[in-house]
Amino acid sequence: MAHRNDQSREISKFDWLLDSGTTSHICTARDAFTNYYRTPGATVKGVGPGEATVEGRGTVNLRFKFDGKVFNHQLRNTLHVPSSPNCLLSLTRFDDGGGFMETGGGICWLMDNSKKVVGKGYKHHRLFLLAARATLLEQERTNYAASPKLSWDQWHCRYGHISISALRQLEKEGLVSGLTIDQSSIPSKTCIACTEAKQAHQPFPKEAENRSDTPGERVMSDVWGPARVVSIGGWKYYISFTNDSIRYVLVLFLRDKGEAPQWINEHTLKIKQRFGKAPMYMRVDNGKELVNEEVKKFCAEEGITIETSAPYSPSQNGVAERFNRTLIELVRAMLIAKDLPSFLWDEAVSHATYIRNRSPTRALKGKTPYEAWTGKKPDVSHFREFGCDVWVLDESKNRSKLAPKSKKMVFMGFMDGSKAVRYWDKTSRNVKVSRNVSFNDNEEPRELEVVEVPGLQAEGEVKGNLAPKTTNEQPKKDEEPTQEAEIEIETPGA
Fold first, then answer.
1. What is the pTM of this model?
2. What is d(CA 325, CA 204) in angstroms, rounded to the nearest whole number?
3. Which terminus of the chain faces fewer neighbouring Cβ atoms within 10 Å, N or C?
4. For position 77, which CATH number holds?
5. Domain boundary residue among 139, 160, 194?
6. Pairing mode, if any, of strands 281-284 and 305-308?
């Protein structure tokens, strides 16, 4: 199993560091103490600027979890310092208790007096970040159950396998609502789906320097395909449109590259409706599906200047190329994580685009592309992991009164423009839409009537005609591939 040391993540108040300088263990959470004595007037130095107030002292149960094993430790006389930037495990106190420490290769091992490994940590910017969390009181766990907070790993999966650092940015800057994260959870060092999907990616093309500052002024477009596997919707390509200023992206699917001019016309109409005028510039590569007489004539009529990249120079259309590569990596990860068949790639692309518009980007400060496009902060509380189980109300008229009221299907994403969910029916091999669904993270269906997914709003985004369609059609052997066609979408066992 691959080990991923995320040096980009920030250390939180709930993280535990191994410290050779402190003479006492330090914990920031009052609810971690099993017994507690207040210490009026007590202070401590070295855990921040100046002196920090010690609110109390007591016993903390520290749980290490690594390599599939769990080790519990009781830390007596631990100081409660709420203002400390993180929790500290005193190496001198651990030594006083008969413990040993060994380091090597960026890893530290904590051992008891019989040399048995009872703790582990990883080097993080010259500090050892321990694979440990304090066990909270039963009352605190009850509160978590009443108002559930998902772990970093759960949100990593629900957010289409974007990086933990991107999730931290979303939470730290308050870019979305509904992102309730259990801060006491520890992000995993390994995500097999991400390793398999992203391990061999090449550097992204650099973005152009003359970026537009006016929303709708410049649009970057690119065509991906043909896919080696025709999708369940019968698609072989997709075309993406990225707004240069706000990085909001729309993706539409194509059965043939010749359909691209139609979608360029429709997207231009959408820009005119949104901003009151057509874009001034459209940046594309030199593919004949995007630079032909039909497109040139339409752009001339609308006053649009076509900006083309030089032959074999995709970096000149860097924003669109970067989006395509990022999108395909997310698609691979989502399909691999749930061992889904390759013909669902179009559904994964659609859902990945939905997620990316609600993710942070370096091109925007303090907002996501969705908020820049709509003026509304996105609510992500309705997010679910692509490919998870979803129970759909059986609305067939001939259903027996004793038959189950719902059927388990496979979640494919959200249907923009209505408060509905897309799901894959394995029996009929079709993707369908329903408003009456239920999710259960424990994978057991509860009684299901008419349930609205919280946080899901009617947004009116356009992603093209996604009417379900099954087909055995394959790409023609002599069909000319576009820039990204070499990126396969394969899943184990598909």
1. 0.64
2. 8
3. N
4. 2.40.70
5. 139
6. parallel
Rounded Cα distance between 95 and 123, Å, is: 20
User: pLDDT tens for residues 186-225?
Assistant: 787 778 788 777 655 455 445 555 666 777 788 888 888 8
Residue 339 domain flag? yes
Rounded to whole angstroms, the Cα distance separating 212 from 280 reads 10
Distance CA 160, CA 153 (A): 11
Give the model confidence (pLDDT) of 67-76 as tens digits. Answer: 878 888 889 8
Between the alpha carbon of residue 95 and those of residues 20, 90, 110, 111, 126, the distances in Å are: 10, 9, 10, 10, 21
Q: Is 137 helix (H, G, I), strand (E, B) or coil?
A: coil
Q: Indicate which CATH number applies to the domain containing 305.
A: 3.30.420.10
- What does the alpha-carbon distance between residue 229 and residue 59 come to, in Å, rounded to a whole number? 58
Look up residue 343 and give its DSSP letter.
G
Q: Quick check: is 148 in a domain?
A: no
CB 315 within 8 A of CB 206: yes
Per-residue b or e along 72-87, where b marks 16 or more CB atoms closer than 10 Å to that residue's CB: ebebeebbbbebbbbb
CA neighbor of 340 nearest in space, from 405, 411, 282, 257 = 411
Evaluate whether 254 touches 225 at the Cβ level (below 8 Å).
yes
Structure tokens at 133: 């969390």
What are the distances in angstroms from CA 29 to CA 14, 34, 116, 440? 8, 11, 29, 30
Shared domain for 223 and 369, answered yes or no, is yes
Give CA–CA dist 79/471, Å, rounded: 65
β-pair partners for 238: 224, 253
Containing domain of residue 120, as a range?
16-139
SS3 for 373?
helix
Lowest pLDDT segment from 85-94, 126-135, 188-197, 316-325: 316-325
Structural domain contains residue 446: no
